[in-house]
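INTERNAL AUDIT FORM
Audit reference: QA-55
Scope: verify that the stored structure record matches its stored sequence.
Auditor: D.O.
Record contents follow.
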Amino acid sequence: MSVFTRRRRNPTDGPPGTADAPSTDADAQRRPDDQGTHDPAGPANTAAGTADNGTPDATAPTPATTDPNSGTDPDARTDPDGRTVLGSGTDPDGGTDPGSRTDPDGGAGPDGGAGASDGDREGDGDGGGRRRGRIRTVAGWLTSVLALLLVAFAMLAPNQLSLFTPWVFLRLPVEALLVVALVLLLPTWGRRAVAVPVGLLLGLLAIVKVVDMGFFAVLARPFNPVFDWISFEAGTDFVEQSYGRTGAIVAVVAAGLLAVGLLVLMTFSVLRLTRLAVRHRRATTHIVSALGATCVVGAVLGVQIVPDVPVSTLTYDRVLQVQAALRDQEVFAAEARIDAFANVPGEQLLTGLRGKDVVLAFVESYGRTAVEDPFFAREVGATLDTGYTRLRTAGYAARSGWLTSPTFGGGSWLAHATLLSGLWINNQQRYTHLTSSDRMTLNRAFQRADWRTVGVMPGVTQTWPEGTFFGYDEVHASKELGYRGPQFSWAQMPDQYTLSVFEQREHAKPDHPPVMATIPLVSSHAPWTPIPELIGWDQLGDGSIFGPMAETGESADDLWQDSDKVRTQYRRAVQYSLDTVVSYLERYGDDDMVFVFLGDHQASPIVTGENASRDVPITIVAKDPAVLDRISGWNWQDGLKPGPATPVWQMSDFRDKFLTAFGS
């Protein structure tokens, strides 16, 4: 827009031709030393910039007033040099031009964006300035909406993917109303002092919810911030063994970036919403008042918008969980002090098993779902029924029951510790305290009664100091088993090879003392691909024969895109492990063999579905009828498959019941 204007003709102006002559630079701009002398007697002429004779006075300054119809900026002023300048956005008192707004926190324009310039308001020839202004406005509101959605996720979203419905967002978080009310009362610095820590706390809450979703998907429970840090290490080991070291590094880096990004975005979101609330103070006050009253009424009357979804809710449940977890140490210490078998002499322990070799085998992820769910029951049930027929032919009998595992989907070591110690070990803190105590485990009981106790541990790939606590005379760890074949995803070696090592190194030794062995069988460990096949026991060698098997089947990435395929592969893996146990007993079992096998926990929810029980099958197999007569009072089911009405015990009850049944 030109800074030059045409003067309006006044009656006192000179002749039309002279008055309408185009302005020159001298009309619009004069140096201070060129100022004309003011004529008090001729204000009209002086103001018009003309001499007494009607000709333009070259010494008179250009008037500051302009024609209102000329399109000239009404805020144009004359600077000390006599130049006409556009409105600068400053009022006569030195304040900011109301047309250029600044929010209370210093951000200009709507939602903290910069206000439109004069050029944007006037627009250029093609309207580009107006378009840019509209884009900035839309972008500002869109950013505010996204910030609101992110905060709503942190405060209202459930921590289980299966619970995501529109109804869960029909709740009023009391904390949010309190924070907004506080923000409206505080000055600018106070608002920031509140918004930043609130944003960080919401970011942490969002991270915990995301972690909870993963825990529920795999372990069917939420993340415990006190106990579950070891689970991240276990998860990293699982990724590394399944996808290699590079895959594990990528997963860890990605998780770290996601966590940091969520904290930063949540903090900026809260700051932005704080500015928006202050800018629309009156509307915000009305809304907070109305919602606050609704929360009070809802809390008093127990109002619910939909069943089981209260109107008012608080987010301090996690704090209560932490408090309970911290108290758990005292609770566990009190439980551990009670041990009916701590001081029983060795000669009174396990008298009903004298001279027997006892094997305790944990079948990975072998749960009640595998036996009773229609998707698996026909094939797995057939494997168990056929297997029992084969064992009966070989002279064996069996009894089966149910145990409730302390864990689900993972954490096998917690289940092992629970069964062996007779204590409920459902978290890492309890496991750590247990393994640093002198609790008598089932292994120690056999050791005290003069059995040789060994552990054949294909899943132990690092130093395992807990072996001393459990009471093993010798631990055959993964690297000491002489396996030269391929790894089957997480499983270091097939179950058949693991049992063959036990046979060669312990059971087959001539004149060996009675041996008690703990053997985790890991071929049925997730991700259930590839799966080995049962071969002749004489063909095993160093395991190299399994090479071609490890190259068959789908990759874990492809398999886990289809839940039905995952469930099918899980079934096949469990059937392989069960077939291996039956085949071992057919080939190497004798009159002095007592074989106990059980599941450590249920498989993850992708296999079991939501809300599955934590029950696992347990079976005792023996040729000597006297062994099973000892447990006749347990009311367990004949065969390898427990029935629906078979009693269910806590897994922590097994140690005492077993020592009682087979003691003197």
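Auditor finding: record pair retrieved intact. Confidence is low (pLDDT under 50) at residues 1-123, 308-314.
Action required: none
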